[in-house]
Every structure is written in C-alpha cells, then in structure tokens.
C-alpha cells in the first residue's frame, strides 16, 4: 500500500496547488494512526487575546520536564488552520507526544487583515506563552524547538532574525520546511501581496532571509523531492546564507518521495521516514 502511495506522489510531480493538496490528503488519510489514549489533548488554548491566537496542546500522560516542539503550519499567508482537516495536524501532536515531546500546534493571524509582520509576531507570542506555561503541562521551558512548514517556516525565520521583532529568542532549535524566505519583483502572488504589501521597495527589508546572521539556534532545513522549483529554491538560498553566517555548512535534509505537504501529512502514519529524521534532530539538539 505504501508503495502505491509513493508512486502516486511521484505521479503528481513537482507541483503544488489546492488540487494536489486535496489529493495528498486523501492519499494519507487511510494511513493515519489512531489518537493515543496515553496523550492528553487540550484544544484552543489562548496564547494571546485575538481569536486566531490559539494553540492545541498534546502531552504524554504524566509528562514532566519534556522537550517542547511548537508546530507552525502553512496556509499561504491568507489561510490554513491547525484543525482544518480531520486528523491533520493532530497527527503531528500525537506522534511527537508519543516520542516524548510536549507538542503545541498553533494558529496565527492572517492577511490581509493582519499583514507583515503579524505571523512572526505570533510565533514570538506563542514562544513567550510556552516559556511561562510549559512546566505546568510537563514541558521544559529551556528546551523549546520551532517547526515551521511552508508559510509557517517563513514566520519562524522572520521571528528569529528580523530586527523589526526585537527581544530575546529563547529557543534551542528550529526546523524550517520549504518556506518562502524572499519576496521580490512586481509580479508576486496575490496572497503574498496581501501579507507583504504592494510596495516593491519594501520587499527586501520584509524578506526574512535578508536579516539572517550568526545565531545560537540550531537549524535544520528540509526540502521535498517534489517541491516545485519556486518552493524548493528558497531553501537552498537560505542554506547558503546560514552557511556563510555561521562559518559552517547548514544542516539540510532532502526528503525523498515527498511533495510540498506530504512531508508533514505523513507524520503519524506508517510512512514515518520524515518523522524519524525530525525526531532525531530534535532529540539531539534538545538533549
């Protein structure tokens, strides 16, 4: 069955659009693991006052002193939700809780009502909430990692490096999966215009890759085999920027057999190759 799934992913090719998203969801839904009775779930916990500033929390039973992972989903700046599809992204919460993490899956404010840098700001608000409340839920506030996928990765990188978002960055590690790290030109997609604005003269300053510098945060970049070029290339650009900033090669994982969303949809299924790569990195960096 998994061979058939992988063959179908390959047949979809290096493309991404709403139809491919729905087809990929349908491929993985039959393989989702059942929620574990040993994982405690709390839904829609507020980390800040506005409606979208909510997170879902997944903790192993009798948890104490666990490393913490905050998952920041994609959605193209103007959409997406932590529970928009039944079982996704609860799969991430349950799987990594079973692996010994306190997991938080967050929503953030959306454009056009909340343009740049609202997404990055919300990552910071969520981290601040976790720092204050993780211990009460079995987590260690001094061992926090961020995992951003697609636009979620954009918001994580913005929070980590953009000088518009001042203050300490009290996280130990970050996973950035196929994000948009630079916006440029006069023909960017309407959803990106909704977030970054319509003035091209501001795009360089609002591109998170512009501000990357040496940092104490361990970073894993991932790119999927069937990411379309416009979603894959930014990861390689960011790898070069991090390499030059830190004076050593950036850590990069190439996810064979996956497309832009199957990398995260596969977590919590029998197709556990991506989850294993991510868990190994996190346990190494949060030990």
Description of the structure:
The structure is a single chain. The protein has 287 residues and is α/β, with parallel strands linked by helices. It is built from 10 helices and 8 strands. It has helices at residues 2-12, 18-28, 90-98, 118-133, 151-161, 190-196, 203-206, 229-246, 262-265, 273-285; strands at residues 39-46, 54-60, 66-72, 102-106, 139-149, 173-177, 218-226, 251-259. It has an 8-stranded mixed β-sheet, with helices on both faces. Helix 3 links the parallel strand 3 (66-72) and strand 4 (102-106). Helix 1 runs antiparallel to helix 2 and helix 4 (118-133) packs across helix 5 (151-161).
